[in-house]
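Lab notebook: predicted structure, single chain.

Context: the supervisor wants predicted structures on file for every construct in the current expression panel, including those that have not yet been purified. This is the next one on the list. No modifications to the sequence; it matches the entry in the shared construct table.
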Amino acid sequence: MRTLKRKMHTAIAAVTLSTAVSAQQYVSPEGDGQVLLYPFFSVLNESNTYLHIVNTTDDNKAIKIRFLESRNSTVILEFNGYLPPNDILALAIDKDEKGGAAVLASDTTCTVPALGTANGSYGGTQTTLFNGATLRRQPFVPYLYDSETGNPSIERTLTGHIEVIEMGVVDSSIDLSDCDAVLKLWTEGVWASNTATSVTSPTGGLTGNSIFINPNKAYSMNIPVTAIDGWARSGVNYHTGTGTLQPELDEGATSARVGTVVHDYTGQPRSGALALTAALSTGSIYNEVQTEDTIAAETDWVVMSPTKRFFVNSTAAFAPFTKAYDSTKADTTACEAINLTRFDRSANKTTGTGTFVPDSTGVEGQLCDAVSFMAYEGKSALLIDNATSVSFPYQNGAAKIKFSNLMPADNAGKVLQGLPVIGFSATRIVNGAMSYGYAQKHATNTVTSGG
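Prediction complete. Output recorded below exactly as produced.
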């Protein structure tokens, strides 16, 4: 496996982006689409994260599976997956002996490169299980950020997020259940010379689910997954090799549909990233909080921005973001100011930006990482060691975060307010030696002006 070398590869010639703008990206209300966004994984404190990627269609699917760390969404592993009709790819994320995290699979779904193979200093392993299945383990790697002086630690791979992009429909003449034959297509077959052969444009139908579990504390919870449909540009073949960092989320359609309103960014800089940002943009997030002493309740919020990296990794940030990422700093600098209002269950409230504690962390009233963790009253339901502590003056209730950021105007002059944010609240309730947990997706709202 030679994924994620220090030198980025050039684009595969088969990915020639068309100028068609008929496709419109949107958050799928049905929960399936061409892109899946998993907002969170963690292996901290002996936790594990599991995920399924499901092909609900009768077509062969080629997908890109990409794992990204939580600080700046730097890629820590990617590979191709080939799903036959109605196939489910099951993966697990666990702590690795080298100090980072690793992805594991005993699934027979074909991946290229095969999991459990060589990858520089972070090579994989294969183990035969009691039932004859092969357990493949592939460590996450720091190759794309270990030159940073701010925080090059392998421990950055312990938390993060995942994205799955459909690259296209593979012709039914290719048997994706025969992984040896699929691998040979890349080494000496048609895909070695032309990745577009026998592959057509994405059509959607992918769905997924994820579970966070801590066996020692005997609790788990579902992680909400966001599906994007209409992502692919019309007529584009996105099938690429591994180690290319392609396709990227910003290579999709340049228009977005938000409710019934279409926002077209065709011709603007970062147009594909702007379209997906518009589809995900929200003026606020709202969710419940429970810190009740009598049931030892703990609540975290996970606030994740899938497109942030396309706007902050320059000397200056681009709207809707305001602060750039500085790789020389130990603390994340790409921070966005927020306004937090907290409510009890009778609608009493407190308002203000100065709600984060302790003040000495320098993140008071701000969200800084690509995946930000907020632990109400400093007790983390997800066992996140560096979660930002947020005061909550009630035993239970709710909170709302408002974003005042503005996106660039679309081609019709319409401006969306907010940030591209997904995520959930995670609550753990302790019952003696046992616990139980539940997660709720953030409620969002769209704010548009102009046009």
